[in-house]
Amino acid sequence: MGCFGVLFNIIWIITGGLMTALGFLLVGVVCCITIVGIPLGRQAFKMASLTLAPFGRTVSFGGGAPSFVANVFWVLLFGWWAALIYFLEGALYCITIVGIPFGLQLFKMAKLMLCPFGATVQ
User: Fold this and answer.
1) Angstrom distance (rounded) from CA 94 to CA 9
2) By C-alpha distance, which of 27, 64, 65 is closest to 46?
3) Predicted confidence band at 4 (pLDDT cuts at 50, 70, 90)?
4) How far is the C-alpha of 47 from the C-alpha of 54, rounded, in Å?
5) pLDDT tens, 83-114?
6) What are phi and psi of 120, to 5 degrees?
7) For residues 83 and 106, is the Cβ–Cβ distance under 8 A?
């Protein structure tokens, strides 16, 4: 990650990335209180990790049939609206030239929010 990646991550954290990451962290902790919620909590921790500093990080998707089934339930329950919010916010950021790098990160998060099971953040 170059100088711009570090600078953009700092701007991202100051302008809301830290608060959003803390929100996902809190959701993850609450989900992990029950055994049934642990898989959901793990996905929230994954989102918190990406939300804290998205520049210079990539998301790869895989996982096979179990991840596919889990993603179907995820999308039906709440993944679709959360991904839609990230997508719409990313589109708004991409209206300006200065906002395009931030909008692209929001598109990355929308994709992860749509199919988090089987995805890895690197």
Assistant:
1) 17
2) 27
3) confident
4) 10
5) 999 999 999 999 999 999 999 999 999 999 99
6) -125, 140
7) no
